Amino acid sequence: MTPLVLGVGACLAGWIALYALLCYTNGSCGYEWNCRLVTLFHGILAVCITAYIGYIDGPWPFTYPGTKNTPLQISAMVVSLGYFIFDMAWCVYFRTEGLVMLAHHTMSILGILLTLWLGESGIESCAVLFGSEITNPLLQTRWFLKHSGRYNSLLGEVVDVLFVLLFVFMRIFVGGAMLYCELISPRPKFIIKCGGVAMYALSWVFMVDIGRFAYRKSQLKYQRWMKRHRMAEVNGQDVKRE
Q: pTM for the full model?
């Protein structure tokens, strides 16, 4: 267990050092901008490592849940655990996130700690990391566009649509299938299954928020379209009168 503690400490120090370096070289952009750069980097790194674990290194999480942790799985979880501890502390200190995001970080930290302590179900944790982080680059891109004044553009529309579609597919449909395989398998421990249910329930909480956002945005676009349509009709009538 001591090497794991040292590994988590080293990764936490690494994420802090990366954030400090960004603040030093890119200080004009602000603390949150640089923290989100760290988040973006972690998201890309986590997706690449866990994709390799799931698709190449194995085992396949849908058919072999509850298996012993491999060294690569442990490394991926240690790296992400260090990041989640860093980001959780940052969010609490700067008070930038709500209870739902803090709950997500808390459950991620506890889930990884439990998996490392048990020495099994690492493949499920890596699969959850992959599904959770694959939408992260789009989420951060959306924030960067918004705070650089380029969100109300075609690129902003594309990012929003891709984020919603990818979230629904990965977190709801693929995540639901993963949870079903976890629950029917006799190998994973009961507490791991409870953690899977909790993470999937949290995905639905996020899904409700995303659904509200999509509804508000579609309503706004419809109102703008109706306004343009009415203006076109009025202009057309004015031309006929002339």
A: 0.88
